[in-house]
Amino acid sequence: MTGSVEVVYRGIFQKHLGQRITRGIVLAAWKEGKVGISFGRYGDSPERNGIPAKSFAVVADNEEELQAYLSRYEPSNNDVTVAVDDTLCKGVESWAWYGLQPINKLTRAGGTVLVTSIQTPEELLKDCHRKNAEWNLAVLKGTASFSGLWVYKEDHTDVRVLGAIAKVAPHVVKIESVEAAIRGEWGDELKVGSARKAYERVEIRTVRPEEGNPEKPYEFQLPKWWEMKEALVIPGIPVRQEVRGWDGGYRPGRNPTFKKFATRTMRPVVDFEICTKCTICWLQCPDSCFDVTPTGHYDANMEACCGCGVCEAVCPVKDCITMVNERAFEDNASQFEAYQKDEAAYKAWLREKIQDKVVTSRSHGFRYRGQYQEELAQMAAEGEGPGGS
Amino acid sequence: MMMTTALTVLPTQDLQPFKGVKKVRIEEYFTSGHRTCQGCESALVMKLMAKAAGPRTIILGSTGCMYVANTTYYSTSWVVPWMHTQLGASGSAAVGTAAGLKVLMRKQRIKEEPINVIAFCGDGGGADMGLSSISAALTYPEYNFLILMYDNESYANTDIQLSSMTPYGANTTFSPPGKARRILHKRWKKNVACMLAAGHPECRYVATVDASYPLEMMNRVRKALSIGGPTFIHSLDPCPKGWDYDPMQSHELGELAVETGVWPLFEVENGILKFYGKSKAIAQGRKRKPVREYLLRQGRFAHFTEEDLDYFQKKIDGMWERWLLPGIAPFRLADDIKKALAKSEAELEATS
User: Fold this and answer.
1) A-proximal residues of B, 37-56, CB under 8 Å
2) Deepest of A265, A367, B39, B78, by most Cβ within 10 A of its Cβ?
3) How far apart are CA A306 and CA B182, in angstroms?
4) 8 Å CB contact of A11 and B40
């Protein structure tokens, strides 16, 4: 019998986390006398930061079964899909394919999507797309763990996920073997304890086919190479998109086959009232995501924004641009249109988004040396993280 | 614009500097939907470069992030014509394209008009593999083109391997700090802009730029495209992936590189060397920020001890305090030459 687990993670920020989880699964399987292999998806390399990528673990009773399973391109019928960041539930547009893939697409019928999140399963189901079969949603309580590429944040998310996998898929790995593997790999009883607690506390819920986000994920039909023009020339992007009623405004043409917004974990919200139209966010955006409105405002287009936060960093006006956790939003609607329609309502909406410190405070990656030690101390003080929760 | 003895030189576009951010053209010629990292400064360099050059431009890209991430199968973010060139071939591709355009115009196969030719390369494609082809290209005064090197100080596209532009001590896949040896990479990075400016008398314009100063950066691109002949620009691009920092800090790290003196902004125009922006003030004696402010914001230097930080600071101090061309060329004059020069200067002063 074989079992497989895919870990969906946010590029460089979670590369080592993803690798540790899939490696841990194989180490645990060995403790049970099984064989296994853990590997990253080739098509994801190099993992761009933020862009969803995958790491896999396959375990089997013997070499023959493992070889047979690996003869396919990649595991596509997984017992467990792990999303180490809950905004991945909105869908995944990775390097390796075109279009948006639901988080549960490669989860087998009756399999489990395991998410680390502080949201409830019901809130997460607003994002997760529907599946044509019954599946399980498991929530491991915790905020998404982002760290640097060269500096790892030891917040025990890796072992907690391993403990939770043992709960939702004991036929892949058992909790006893996970504990033994952690002892062997790290020799840390605190980590063993974190795995056991996660095993006991992970929340699981069955999801019926009619539950979840009804939206159809976007996809593209691309020509085959032999259908392309001579010399494999492809069309360039038009310099502008016409927008009705936008005299004097400008919306650039954009790549139609890659949207990039599934990369986003935070989005900028703009206070148009205090904006001085200084142009700096527009000029400094690496993704050219700002549309220039006829009034000379800059409206971050949510189909193109990948949430890097440079606009907030360069904006000279205090509190004009604020990055807010992506989970606080349901759609990609234009903020400027909402502002034009009803300024007071927009202002209230804006205030609500910005004031919720739970959703605005979010770490993207390494900021300064010593940051992770401080954060871990803070988590310990609040009874979370290593040894806690 | 001008005729030299035996060479026909085609006119270039008249690209006057943008006078202020409000005067920058609104159109994008490199647009959204590229598969780069969040906060990718090199993507910003592409965008600003294309914006500065305008619609009548052909861009050639050698292998690197800005090829792989921007143009996956049947997918592009380029508005202007773009073509992939071999890794290390940006110089030859630029000469070939400029020469081809010239012939097509002479044979009246296409309308005669000035068309910008820009070839870009990363630090791997330019400073390592492509250096000879760039050097060769810069010896052809009869062709108009710009070679822009976007330097993120590693082979970031293939998982952050060390390049000759990786700074001292940085953590890369090829130089991981370990218990036995903390610092594996001990070479000091090359100064490509200085090397190319010093060695290519036919090249009229060489500059270093930093996209954290977008107006200055775009105007250097416009100068390079309008001055005529082959030109070279070297851009330092903070890389959130390889340098390991929160992508929100891209802009700030670009500024810190200049303010700490690690990245001098200068241009050599018709043989005249000028510092510009904050580097000008530094060259004139303004205090530099300590390099630790820059280094400790990046995960690739997180393993540095106080000793390493001091060493790095001393090297930067030396660059500015002891070099003949501060921050640029690591020369010092031999004593007899110094004396002779001082003497002739004194004589000059006495006679004037």
Assistant:
1) 37-41, 43-44, 47-48, 55
2) B39
3) 36
4) no
- Interface list for A 135-174 with B (CB within 8 A): 148-151
For residue B176, the SS3 value is: coil
> Three-state DSSP class for A10?
strand
Across the interface, do B302 and A150 touch by the CB < 8 Å criterion?
yes
- Chain A stretch 66-125, residues whose beta carbon is closer than 8 A to a beta carbon of chain B: 95, 98
Looking at residue A386, what is its pLDDT? 63
The Cα–Cα gap between B314 and B350 comes to 38
Q: What share of chain A is helix, strand, coil (3-state, %, to 5)?
A: 35, 20, 45
Domain ranges of chain B: 21-321
Q: Is some CB atom of chain A closer than 8 A to the CB atom of B159? A: yes
Burial of A160 (0-12, 13-18, 19+ CB in 10 A): buried
ipTM above 0.90, yes or no: yes
Residue B256 corresponds to which amino acid?
A: L
Task: Flag whether residue A281 sits within 8 Å of chain B, measured between CB atoms.
Answer: no
Residue B246 distance to chain A (closest CA, Å): 4
pTM above 0.90, yes or no: yes
pLDDT at A388 over 70: no
Question: In this structure, what token pair is assigned to residue B73?
Answer: 């199968």
What residues in A contact B218, CB-CB < 8 Å?
Answer: none
Q: Is the dihedral of CA B263, B267, B273, B274 positive or negative?
A: negative
Task: Examine residue B247 and say whether the peptide bond preceding it is cis (omega within 30 degrees of 0).
Answer: no
Q: Are B223 and B205 in contact (CB under 8 A)?
A: yes
Backbone angles phi, psi at A40, to 5 degrees: -85, 160
Amino acid identity at A379:
M
Element (H, E) at B200: none
Exposed/middle/buried for residue A204 (C-beta within 10 Å: 0-12, 13-18, 19+): middle
E strand or H helix at A3, and its extent?
A: strand A2-10
Residue in B with minimal Cα distance to A226: B74
Alpha carbon distance B193, B188 (integer Å): 15
Each residue's pLDDT tens digit, A49-75? 899 999 999 999 999 999 999 888 788
Q: Do A234 and B74 touch (CB under 8 A)?
A: yes
Give yes or no for residue B292 having a pLDDT over 70.
Answer: yes
Confidence of residue A384 (pLDDT cuts 50, 70, 90): low
- Domain ranges (residues) in chain A: 2-207, 228-256+266-360
Cα distance from N-terminal residue to C-terminal residue, chain B: 37
CATH class of A228-256+266-360: alpha beta
What is the DSSP secondary-structure string of A198-248?
A: HHHH-EEEEE-TT-SB-PPPP---PPPGGGSPGGG------SEE--TT-TT
Q: How many residues does chain A have?
A: 389
Distance (Å, whole) CA B208 – CA B267: 6
CB A93 within 8 A of CB A100: yes
CB contact under 8 A, A49 and B37: yes
From residue A272, alpha-carbon distances to A28, A157, A335, A346, A360 in Å are 54, 39, 9, 10, 19
- Inform me whether the pLDDT recorded for A389 exceeds 50: no
Interface mutation target, options B32, B68, B235, B309, chain A, most CBs of A under 10 Å? B32
Q: A2-207 — its CATH code?
A: 3.40.920.10
What are the tens digits of pLDDT across the range A326-363? Answer: 988 999 999 999 999 999 999 999 999 988 766 666 67
In total, chain B counts a number of residues equal to 352
- Express each pLDDT in A92-120 by its tens digit: 998 778 899 999 999 999 999 999 999 99
* Chosen CATH of B21-321 out of 3.30.70.1280, 3.40.1650.10, 3.40.50.1100, 3.40.50.970: 3.40.50.970
